């Protein structure tokens, strides 16, 4: 018969070692990569929620051109924003309506922890990207708070990080109503 009195001590020792290793190790930063109007965007993986195929969207009157409307995503109404239109990558009247998602287009819901019932419409997903595989680019001097760093991948492609928590708190993002003409 084996002595099991040392088992709890061994387990405790292994757990302490793993915790120490996890605390001393740099967390690996990862992003969900997507394309919108030909521009590469990176969304922090911990801030992104579920990914949906194109859904029926109910347009709302008197909203900004980049606000597509609302969609029923798993039983909850979510505002849908054409991220390319919001960022000024697509412009003109009816931007959201005319920017029907291409084949491969998706809706990326914001993580529930952000408390924003919102999904971003992108043209296509581009997989995952990891900080270890990217090179930081010099930051532009004037940029909105939600614009994180710019990164270049091994193929030389430029990617712009979008901080979804900052985006969800941005006054410009929250102001979906079309301004009333005086």
From the spread of the alpha carbons, the general shape counts as globular
Biggest sheet strand line-up: 8-1-2-11-10-9
Beta strand count: 11
Radius of gyration: 21 Å
**Distance between the terminal alpha carbons, to the nearest Å?**
88 Å
Share of residues in strands: 25-35%
Provide structural commentary.
Helices cover 20% and strands 34% of the residues. The chain is α+β, with helices and mostly antiparallel strands. The strands form 2 sheets. It has a 6-stranded mixed β-sheet. The chain has a 5-stranded mixed β-sheet with strand order 3-6-7-5-4. Strand 10 and strand 11 form a beta hairpin. The mean pLDDT is 86.
Features:
single chain, 5 helices, alpha+beta, 20% helix, 6-stranded mixed beta sheet, 5-stranded mixed beta sheet, globular
In short:
By secondary structure, this protein is an alpha+beta fold. It contains 5 helices and 11 strands. The mean pLDDT is 86.
Question: Can you lay out the helices and strands and say which pair or pack?
Answer:
Layout: H1 7-24, E1 30-36, E2 39-44, E3 48-52, E4 67-73, E5 76-82, H2 83-86, H3 95-98, E6 106-110, E7 118-122, E8 124-130, E9 135-136, E10 147-152, E11 158-162, H4 164-169, H5 171-174
Parallel strand pairs: 2-11, 5-7
Antiparallel strand pairs: 1-2, 1-8, 3-6, 4-5, 6-7, 9-10, 10-11
């Amino acid at each position: 018969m084996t002595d099991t009195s040392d088992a709890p001590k061994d387990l405790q020792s292994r757990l302490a070692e793993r915790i120490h290793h996890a605390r001393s190790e740099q967390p690996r930063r990862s992003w969900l990569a997507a394309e919108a109007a030909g521009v590469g965007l990176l969304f922090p993986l911990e801030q992104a929620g579920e990914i949906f195929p194109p859904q029926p969207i109910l347009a709302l009157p008197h909203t900004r051109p980049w606000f597509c409307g609302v969609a029923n995503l798993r039983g909850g109404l979510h505002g849908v924003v054409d991220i390319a239109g919001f960022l000024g990558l697509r412009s003109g009247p009816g931007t959201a309506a005319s920017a029907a998602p291409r084949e491969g287009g998706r809706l990326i819901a914001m993580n529930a922890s952000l408390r924003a019932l919102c999904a971003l419409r992108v043209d296509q997903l581009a997989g995952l990207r990891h900080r270890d595989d990217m090179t930081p680019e010099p930051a532009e001097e004037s940029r909105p708070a939600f614009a994180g760093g710019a990164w270049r991948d091994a193929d030389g492609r430029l990617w712009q990080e979008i901080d979804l928590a900052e985006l969800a708190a941005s006054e410009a993002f929250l102001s979906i109503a079309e301004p009333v003409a005086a």
